[in-house]
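Notes from the 1:1 (GR / supervisor)

We went over the backlog. Supervisor wanted to see one worked example end to end before approving the batch request, so GR pasted a single chain during the call. The sequence is below; no edits were made to it. Supervisor asked that the structure be written out right there so they could see what the output format looks like.
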Amino acid sequence: MDASAAMEPGFLSVVPALVAIALAFWTKNVLPALFAGILTAGLVMFAQSGEAKDLNVISKLLLPALGSEGYAKILLIYLWSLGGLIGIWEKTGAALHFAEVVGGKLVKGPRSAMVYVWVLGCVFHQGGTVSTVLAGTTARPVADKHKISHEELSYIVDSTASPVATVIPFNAWPTYVAGLIVGAVPFLTDSGAGVTLFFQSIPFNFYGIFAVFGTLLFALGWMPWVGKDMAAARTRARSTGVLDAPGARPMMPSAADLSAVTSTVKGYTPSLLDFGVPLGVLIGLAVIPIALSKAGLISNGNWINEAFLACVLSAMVVAVARGMKLDDVMDGFLGGCKSMTIGALILGLAVTMGEAAKALQTSAYLVGLFGDALPAVALPAVLTLICMGIAFATGTSFGTYAVVMPVALPMAWHLVPDPTYLKVCFGAVIGGAVYGDQCSPVSDTTILSSMFSGCDLMDHTRTQLPLATVFAGLGALASTIAAALVLA
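Structure output shown during the call:
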């Protein structure tokens, strides 16, 4: 008997996520928190099905999650490929050289350093995970030099990842969402119409807009309030040079610790080629196929996996071509891969929590909490809150879209059959899910943002929550006003 079909989803389906998130904040240690959440999911499945086999979370949840294509991509592409790339860059001195040459010309102090990070986040906007890895890796040497706390750095990296990908969506997001909404309302007859709706709804993605430009204000130091913990982190870093909070446990070693394992090879002179060629290969293979696909020249424009592998291979080729021994290159690659161990464990458990959320129909329960007897003016704000909750509990914006979009759009069209009102509701779903994904400690983008910025995961989560929540509140208010104007 399938556990997910044993009974209608109820409050128990949310309990594992609540346990994991509450323990993560309480203990400030996400590994045992995630494991406790998985064990709780096993108990809930047993309570629903009455079958003892559902208590075996290893076979029911952990192994299917770790054996999935999604986790394989995370492990092989984002962790080992990027970890290996960073290790090679440590051997060649590429990242530090780039920071000194390029960052040194543009960055003159803490403010310009944070704006530099914001710009990099906007440039590397092809998707949440890609952006967090590239922006964090590229910006960290410059940010560290100018005493930017790792809490500040990871917030800017995280808040210019998925939010920018929804505001400047020249990536896979529109195509993915379009596939979910074909036929949801009369004029969405094919995926092309869905992509058009995505782009037309960008002005109504208020959280995405507020998050991106609010983060710029934060970087400029123009935000009147940044939250108690973030303010303390900023003061600590500027006055003492200590970039992490007391007791912090970053998932990646510090630059000093990593260089002890993968120190620059004596006699090798770093060049911008060591950094620019791999980065150009990665961005080129990630972006150009999408453009060719949109132009109808190729059928599949998603070359992200190939882009990461080609990126690390190109770094190896450049290093060898410029005189480094292959043994030294491989030492750097393996040293970088080893530095990803803790991150791989956390992401593995986070993926398993996602598997548990699917089995328990957590998203369906949260959607079902709200009936369709809502005033039309309130629906966009309610959709924002629903998506915030689902994405925060499950750690995925794409999964939230898959659950909410097919329900939200017909509901909106039934209440008010007006294209502009539909766009307001569409933008509310997009923005609310991005908020939850960005802020959840079980989200891959949150984990990778903290990892590649050198920040403790829970320090990152705790310090960014107040700021992101303010922007989400403003977004919900703006969507309510927009709905009221449509209905007037």
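Supervisor's comment: Residues 98 and 272 are 6 Å apart (CA to CA).
Batch request approved.
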